[in-house]
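Fold this complex.
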Amino acid sequence: MASNSSSGNATKRLYILGAILCFWVTIVGLRLVQLQIFQYGQFERRAMKQQQRTTEISPSRGVIYDRNGHELAMSIMGNSVFSVPSEVPDRSTTASLIARILKADPREIEKTFDCPRNVCPVVRKIDPGLGSRIAALNLRGIYVQPEPKRYYPKGELASHLLGYVGMEDEGLAGLEYAYDSKLKGKKGTIVISMDARKRRFDSAEKDPVPGENLVLTIDEKIQYIAERELEQAMQDTHAEAGTVVVQNPHTGEILALANRPTFNPNVSRKITPAELKNHAVSDVFEPGSVFKIVTYSAALEEGLETPDSPIDCQGGLIVVNGLRIHDLHKMGTVPVSEALAKSSDVAAVKVGLKLGDDRFYRYIRSYGFGSQTGIELPGETRGLAKPVSKWSKVSIDAMSIGQEIGVTPLQLVSMVSTIANDGIYLPPRIIAGATKPTAGPQTIAFHPASGHRVVSTMTAAEMKKMMEGVVLFGTAKRAILDGYSSAGKTGTAQKVDPATHRYSQTKYVASFVGFAPVNNPAVTILVSLDSPFGLHQGGQVSAPVFRRVAQQVLAYLRIPHDVEMRDPKRLLLQAKAKDEDLNDNSPDHVGAPLDFDEDAKADAAASQVAKAEPTGATVLKPASQTIVNTRPDLNTLASASPPAPSAPTGALPPNGTVVLDVSDGAVVPSFLGKSMRSVIETAQTEGIEVDAFGSGLAREQSPPPGARMPAGRRVAVRFGR
Amino acid sequence: MAKRVSVDKTLFTVTLLLVFIGLVMVFSASAVMAKDRFGSPYGFLIRQFLWAVAGIGAMFGLMNVDYKRYKNSGVVFSLLGLTTILLISVFFLDRSHNTHRWFRAGPFSFQPSELAKPTLILFLSYFLESRTRQMEDWRHTLLPAIAPTLFLSALIAAQPDLGTAIACAAITAAIMFVAGTEWKYYLYAVAPLPILFYFLIWRVPWRHQRILAYANPYSDPLGRGFHIIQSLIAVSTGGFSGLGLMEGHQKLFFLPEPHTDFIFAVIGEEFGLIGTIVVLTLFAIFLYRGVRAAVLTRDVFGKYLAAGIASMIVIQALFNISVVVALLPTKGIPLPFISYGGSSLFVMLASVGVLLNITKQTD
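Structure:
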């Protein structure tokens, strides 16, 4: 009985034991359901991260072509020098040897060895010739490897249009900046699935998408002419700055745009903010007499005047609201065309007063003043054309003669092109289009942006005639061409000192805007010189530049002559022109000087592009945060993978099965002739990081096959078809 | 008198199924590693297969040996003595991984701590059968009963192999419970645990870290939390139906010990919830048939022996799986029948042989 009861007790306890273990089984079962059903995929990202390695392949940056397919900006292979400071036996000797080749300060070179990473850049993207000379030194711990480098084959040519790029090929100014996303392309990747010991078992690749090429409306030859003549003018006049813009008036295409001072985009480290400034789009200045074209054409269009109707210049004096305005060329009653030719302020003010505020303002806006032209360049300002509501009593008098209004050179050339284009305004454009990366150089048919009529064909024709008169009989005799008729208008404006808000007594902006030939203009050309020393009138210093540029450009474009070559009458006119005949400067100022602060405020609101344009100060800073990704940096490797071989000193996981294969001084395998996929796979197997450039088969590698390489260093491989 | 009935075919089938699953999974989990280590993907599989053949041979042999023949002080104490000697001498012979666990003979190695578990079960069954009426006598029953367990567990814990030591203690507790130990004694046994915990775990840096890793594996995902995270990744990426045999990625050196302690994670990754539940169910059936055998056996020695063997296998399985799914902190306990490891497989199969013999003699 006792045995029975004890066995009954034992049975009960066996069931309890079974129940406890059953309960445990249930808990484990529920946990499995939770992990495998409800948390399914939650760990996937983590699994992917540790099982896959992604290698980035840099795309090639798009080429910038001129309208005829000449390369203005392209990418070539440069050389970068890196050091592994721990391997460098004697820092100062090593540094001085490198410094001798680079013609640099040895102390500066030595300083580069003190970077917090295992591999430090010494100098990047230098000429391959220098690179191979450094490589030939065979210095321990110094490595030279190719890296794509932006190259501007024409040096300073069109530098303000092209801009330049930073160390990571990121556009920092000009079109390189504005079209960075188009030009840079998309990075390719090779994703390799790997076990914990970095052996691949699967791979997938995505080719890099090369950047698109840009085709500009610029003509390299015309640009060259413009740059050369502007450079000559800068030397002759000692101006502080200058701009030449050449436009096709029938399409709005900018054929050349040159600025001084300028820079060489190949040496981006030395660029100063002053050099970087694209005066053609970002300078705001009072245009002076050139603006009389607006006044007169509006009056003609409104039927208030005709070129031949008489206008009384009142002996060169007018009093408006108590202010006296003088003319340099004192005249009585003359035809309107002659008043323009001699740049009479008195006449212009009277014409302006006839127009009235509202009508005048409408024409000002219609010609594009006060708004951005929408050119594809960064940093464009809209100038300052204040609405009628903000005008004072004398504003119309001031604006009639080009004061109290702020314009950019580009707005000015577009206004004159409107006359040249029979009264239709076309916005200036500089990009013809983008082409497929593989297309190579090709020309693109340019489609003008939609324009609008400002004045009638009749008015435009009359204005052309009157502006030809300015050249032949007025202030712009030095713009007379040989074999071509030409028309235009001079302007000379005293600069406003932005600090004091007062007119400078010594600094002028001398400008000339004209076109040729008169009846069917091929080009509109603006010449603007900022603060020329000595002679400073538009007709004296800027008109000759126009003549030299126009003469060469028209010949280059094979424009048929419309007047006799070496016409003695025209030559005589030009020769007889005395400096004082060419004065068009208004000695008097009607209104208050232009408030540039207001202009700046308006721009800040209107133009994001202008704000985004990096200033010189930020431009010169190295883009440090982007360096991390592309530097041969072991730290990024180590953080990416748990048992990375590049963390030799890292703590071992408690379990011994995770083996770190620390490769010290691995031998570089040969990648040459292999496909990108096989290169990356081989590299992953060997524990080497690869910087891949281009596409196709491996053509070039650095370090070369067989070389010894410290752990974690990267091999650069260039691929080509 | 006990009737002569046939052996429990369910238990027999479940055991062979688990061994079969084990061989497949050892191959899947170890092929890459074996190629790395032995130059052939079958390196681990062949060893495991040979041990399985030997183990099944032992199972068949013991299945036909009347278990009552072990109810003999000579058998019990010589086995206890042999285990003690082996556990002590392993300290002087083995120095792999800074631990003292294995005897090696050519390609084979033997882990004496595996022997400790059936030895303790046999001793407890033998001793407690004679004390059924004096279970309350702590001086003459309880202390002598747990003394060998404490001694052997201490030796094993010193190897150090805390997992097996804990398993020994758990098995002892199970048999003692079936034998009728009052609940209050369990309270007494649990009372000093905090002190033991302090000295054996908190003060031993790597165990301390394992506990911390268990509490929050993501505090140090590349270090202490690495094993647990890798295991959870494997199990959860398996989802419902798994990636398929041989398709798992985590065994490729991410999972520590994919063919031994973490083989269940590989099952989870490659066969998903279906696979893990099948394995869990097989162990549950094993539990049911083991308890059933113990209940149906009238002989008290056989009852305790059956309960001991069944709980030895099921408790180890539950410990192992609980570690894999992060319900318990990491410790080295193999999954019976499935994990790679000859001595464990051999001893487990031999024990099942004894259990099967008991089922033959039930009512």
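Residues 125 and 301 of chain B are 5 Å apart (CA to CA).
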